[in-house]
Design goal:
The protein has about 120 residues and is mostly helical. Helix content is about 75%, strand content about 0%. Helix 2 packs antiparallel against helix 3.
Length: about 120
């Protein structure tokens, strides 16, 4: 099993070096790093406090904070211009998001209170 993992790592490193030499490496879309940070950071706190103690939680918090910092540091390199919603759709989106956050908070309180 470990030989297979080592072979995959060597193959990926070879592909990386080959593309680097050909000059075909694309610059990453740093908005993806920002989005991953937004997802992984709170997920780490959920893992730390609600799911399984402190095994995977700090890892997700650290990686989420790092991704968030990388995305924000390179905000000027975000590839695609982000579309803005019309005001009426933006209000609907905000209301749905607030409802989801409220549901998450109520669930978290019930989990802490009754668990």
């Amino acid at each position: 099993m470990s030989a297979l993992i080592l072979a995959i790592i060597i193959a990926l490193a070879g592909i990386y070096i080959w593309k680097l030499q050909k000059g075909k490496m694309l610059e990453p879309d740093y908005y993806v790093f920002f989005t991953m940070g937004l997802v992984w950071l709170p997920l780490g706190f959920v893992f730390m406090f609600a799911v399984d103690g402190f095994s995977f939680g700090p890892l997700f918090v650290i990686l989420g904070a790092a991704y968030l910092a990388i995305g924000l540091k390179n905000k000027d390199k975000w590839h695609k211009p982000r579309k803005t919603l019309p005001p009426d759709r933006a209000k609907i989106k905000l209301a749905v998001l607030m409802g989801l956050v409220l549901t998450l908070l109520v669930g978290f309180v019930f989990l802490i209170r009754f668990a």
